[in-house]
């Protein structure tokens, strides 16, 4: 987002146990709510996954190894994540229009310059410049169609996102929801070799970052048409693979049953997915970004194209362009609490006088860095790296400091 990302790709709520063995930031949905299932639900259960309610779906939060080991395995080797709950769709232009030009009416990214097979991260914005959702946009390889864009949106927002697109682009473009496809992410230093081995396509190991490739699954589902984007939401190298739902288990089996020279691909749950993206400094929609947060405040200005800054033409452009020029009133920061106590979402951030200057939006234990880490927003004048902070945790004032993001170096493939 998905950047990275669209994960957690990016959206929804993380529930259940986190890497330090404590409750996550967001409570699970009630049992009374009917939960949807992904094509891999039975596959997770058969492997001993602890299933929880997440964005309306039954999803694995962890397996027998636990969140800490799953997190570290992904950083050292490779992990498989089921992200089939996310929304996949083609945006198809009518009457020969460029679908990228149409979508630019809803997002601040420069999309018209996208070449076939290239991908970009962006956000739907509202009239105030707030973020309705973040998403990944790909101009597909030409054999998939020149009249369309491939979108991946967050699970918790997909109904609203699709309704928003259909309302705003009615008569000029249509959505083709890809509900017959699953989405599997493979992340970690061994991911590319594992994926290339399964598809018997060595060239995948040198596929550019934020690009799309196409390959057919071998074995029992030989010929299953898969679309692979070199992206993810853990800070590691890897792919997100759109696969026909009927072939999802075959792909998951192939990836996890065959080791590579770098080690085995293991299934990983939502708990480790959340701690991985937090260490990578990546936003979770509904916590770190929402309708009250602009891309500039969130540190996502890099995703706004130069032409779009000059021309505008997207919702909230006046506010966003002004913040690009003058600076935002608040900024998203990394936070390193002293000691071992994690600072969860909602913890108030105070200055030396005890006045509130911000709030934590995501926090927990960072297994790769061996200490608590967090992200949040503070007044722009208090956002300098290494500036001292105070966190009000359960009635106690704990010292902390502003940290540079990410907490762990990004390992995206750069060629």
Describe, in plain words, how this protein is organized in 3D.
Among the domains are: 41-82 and 180-279, Probable tRNA modification gtpase trme, domain 1 (Gyrase A, domain 2, 2-Layer Sandwich), CATH 3.30.1360; 329-415, Elongation Factor Tu (Ef-tu), domain 3, CATH 2.40.30.110. The two termini are 20 Å apart. The protein has a six-stranded mixed beta sheet, sandwiched between helices. It has a six-stranded antiparallel beta barrel with strand order 14-17-16-15-18-19. Strands 5-6-7-4-8 form a five-stranded antiparallel beta sheet. The chain has nine helices and 19 strands. By secondary structure, it is an alpha+beta fold. Helix content is 19%, strand content 30%. It has helices at residues 41-46, 67-76, 99-103, 158-168, 191-199, 248-257, 270-279, 306-311, 317-326; strands spanning 50-54, 57-62, 78-82, 87-93, 118-125, 131-139, 148-153, 173-177, 181-187, 212-216, 225-229, 238-244, 265-267, 330-337, 348-350, 356-366, 371-379, 388-393, 396-403.
